[in-house]
Amino acid sequence: MVAITNQKGGVGKTTTAINLTASLAHLGYRVLLIDSDPQGNCTSGFGIDKSSLEHCYYNALIDGESLEPLIVRTMIAGLDILPSTMQLAGAELELAGIEQREFHLKNLLEPIKPWYDYIFVDCPPSLSLLTLNALTAASDVVVPVQAEFYALEGLSQLQVIIERVRESLNAHIQITGAIVTMFDSRIRLAVDVAKELEASFPAYVFASKIPRNVRLSEAPSYGKPALLFDPKSRGTTAYLELAHEFTRQVPLY
Amino acid sequence: MVAITNQKGGVGKTTTAINLTASLAHLGYRVLLIDSDPQGNCTSGFGIDKSSLEHCYYNALIDGESLEPLIVRTMIAGLDILPSTMQLAGAELELAGIEQREFHLKNLLEPIKPWYDYIFVDCPPSLSLLTLNALTAASDVVVPVQAEFYALEGLSQLQVIIERVRESLNAHIQITGAIVTMFDSRIRLAVDVAKELEASFPAYVFASKIPRNVRLSEAPSYGKPALLFDPKSRGTTAYLELAHEFTRQVPLY
Ligand SMILES: Nc1ncnc2c1ncn2[C@@H]1O[C@H](COP(=O)(O)OP(=O)(O)OP(=O)(O)O)[C@@H](O)[C@H]1O
Ligand SMILES: Nc1ncnc2c1ncn2[C@@H]1O[C@H](COP(=O)(O)OP(=O)(O)OP(=O)(O)O)[C@@H](O)[C@H]1O
Ligand SMILES: [Mg+2]
Ligand SMILES: [Mg+2]
Known about the structure:
- The structure is a homodimer.
- Chain A is of the alpha/beta class.
- In chain A, 41% of the residues lie in helices and 13% in strands.
- A 7-stranded mixed beta sheet of chain A has the order 3-4-2-5-1-6-7, with helices on both faces.
- In chain A, a hairpin with a 5-residue loop joins strand 3 and strand 4 (79-82).
- The radius of gyration of chain A is 17 Å and the shape is globular.
- Chain A starts with a strand and ends with a helix.
- The mean pLDDT of chain A is 96.
- Residues 13-14, 37, 41 of chain B line the site of one magnesium ion (MG).
- The site of one magnesium ion (MG) has 4 residues of chain B, from helix 1.
């Protein structure tokens, strides 16, 4: 299981979650994407009407319902999604008082793991219990990093948290790599940040950088990943390249 | 007191907090900025070395220390800051179990209110207890909205939360206005989102839009607001205009 996380807001977690999973499914892998953000951006990014959902990830996490009936197919063959609604916002405080509060997602995933080659979780912009559930269940962590000053600042905090998770909750967790997002090589700050990341980040930095591309931000308003919205765009191509590189870094066993 | 909040990440909350407060101080107002985000981006945006801080907002919120000794002057005359470090990340779960957990900030502010014309709080990208403390203490709420699809989606959730705060925690809270940030009039999506916001947002939308301007994202790496980093930039001018408009919307009594 792969957690897509960075507590810095707006760095491209959801855009990476949607387009990387769509690209992997396009390459023939069976993929599940879990929307663990109360904003439900992955859910609306696939055109799912949240008001039509009676049950979602919240019901599995808090009420103990099994995941299977909650999973929805997307318009991309081979890619399923576990949607979320605003209801999930209540989960943070509700989980705080429950036994084994960090292990709920890990336990929920056990029965469905065999159905998928890769399972991804899109995390909210915080290091809270929803994110801790993803990190406790994850074998791999992918960190989108916007090519901006503040994005570098938060990375050391994230590494401290991941180290703590490894010591007390999940000995197998590892950082698979950082992905540079919204990269514009004409902007000096972006080039400097990317260089700094490659020089100082203690784990792998994916060679495929995701360029700033307006088609990536337009696609969700049509409820589709870029692959379907504009297959020839630079954003689509970049995420397909990233998908290839990802399968080399996280091979199937 | 003015809370700058939006649970959507990366919409320009911190950039607005730093540059709007700097502009108001430049116009002669006495201003305090409280960094209520564990990322501490406002703190580093003013060049403050977080590792040199022994005490910060966390110590007031959890240990009950008074705010006064924690407040630091910035390089802008008339503008003070209450800094934060990573320690604040622990406050979420620690506050969850304490009496009157939403009222801590409101009680801390009482003794220092007379010293300032305006007090602002920069919130993290979540609707958690740190944000609830700001909303409970606030008379006004300013909502930065990035001109992108996902940014509109979260606004209805934010309005629901503010309504709940008005009913149970703070009868005086009102939304002062939304601010369009990172606006590029050449991008159709941005123009559409700004129009949609003006048509559907139930409160005021500031006429001053903040353009996408790379100098705004470079300034924090020099530890200065744009006003000092590049006084003639479009970003600086836009925030000065916003400051004038803000004083008309939130006059001093
Ligand atoms: N490569 C890109 N080019 C252009 N726009 C992008 C790109 N990646 C993301 N965006 C846009 O930037 C905004 C932030 O991206 P996104 O919502 O994916 O980040 P996030 O990290 O998931 O945010 P949050 O912290 O709120 O969960 C969105 O409006 C998105 O459409
Ligand atoms: N008008 C602008 N033009 C160009 N870049 C901007 C502008 N406003 C903000 N930025 C940059 O965009 C990124 C996100 O902005 P910022 O950190 O202020 O958002 P935020 O809402 O405070 O994020 P978070 O949700 O993580 O607290 C930062 O790197 C910032 O420098
Ligand atoms: Mg997201
Ligand atoms: Mg911020």
